[in-house]
Amino acid sequence: MVAVPINSRDEAFADYLYADDRQNRLFGLLRSPDATSRLAAAGVGGISPSFDDMQTHVARPDGAAMSNYRMGPGRTLRQGAERNEGAAEVEFRIDGSVRVFCGRLSDALGRGESTVQMLFDDLLLTYVVRTLTLVQAIAEITGHFGESDLGLGANGLSGVRSYKANDTFHDGTQYSVDDYRRTTTTSYPELTKSIGAVTERLVGSLLRTLGSHHLYSPLFIDADLPGD
């Protein structure tokens, strides 16, 4: 997922990124209590890799990243990690833009002919909600209270089913294409009052197709969540 502020100052976030205590500051942003309470109210969480795992600070051109233990320097995998599953990081840039990567959106569950590729709906929603709260927090730090472009992409989805729908004995639909992509534009006022509407625009179509959207309705109804 990516978030890019529109018409922000080129180095609006630089002082924050290069402060002496930058690692602690960035880790604090990742652990937003607003996001934690929002997700908890909807019963979402418990699947790794989580934002709490991203404790390694890595310098990047025009910014920095907070990565988990599976990520190596320069967006590489640690030695011994054959696949990117479980790798995760959030990259911050000096203009206030954010790039979020998660290598484990789905996994094969079961054995033999009964093996099914399951999409972890909770993990997807956790990353979307936490990224949106990051965008809001960075706007407050940089003073950019205008609009931001958002993009969400996932691949390798052909044949996946919803883990949530399966786990709660609801009928789910197998996804039939490999990629899912959505873009939208939001604003600071919308993120402070209607983050559920932004979440809906980004993931609503995917979850409706998989048959799990109704299981997460509290995340899309802003008035029912703490802090609204």
Describe this structure in words.
There is one protein chain. This protein is an alpha+beta fold. It is built from eight helices and twelve strands. The chain has one domain. A hairpin with a 6-residue loop joins strand 8 and strand 9 (116-119).
Give a summary of the structure in a few sentences.
The protein contains eight helices and twelve strands. It is of the alpha+beta class and 228 residues long.
Average pLDDT taken over every residue? 90
Q: What is the total number of structural domains?
A: 1
Tally of separate helices: 8
Reading the helices and strands in chain order gives EHHHEEEEEEEEHEEHEHHH
| Strand content bin | 15-25%
- How would the global form be characterised? globular
Helical fraction equals 25-40%
Structural class: alpha+beta
Distance between the termini: 24 Å
What's the Cα radius of gyration? 17 Å
Which strands sit side by side, in order, in the main sheet? Answer: 2-3-6-7-1-10-12
Low-confidence stretches: 224-228
As an assembly, this protein is single chain
The biggest beta sheet reads: 7 strands, antiparallel
What is the number of E strands? 12
Which structural traits does this protein have?
8 helices, 228 residues, disordered C terminus, alpha+beta, globular
Show the helix and strand layout.
Layout: E1 2-5, H1 14-17, H2 22-30, H3 33-41, E2 56-60, E3 63-67, E4 71-72, E5 76-77, E6 88-93, E7 98-102, E8 106-109, E9 116-119, H4 121-142, E10 147-154, E11 161-162, H5 163-167, E12 180-187, H6 188-193, H7 195-210, H8 217-220
Parallel strand pairs: 9-11
Antiparallel strand pairs: 1-7, 1-10, 2-3, 3-6, 4-5, 6-7, 8-9, 10-12
Helix pairs in contact: 3-4, 4-7
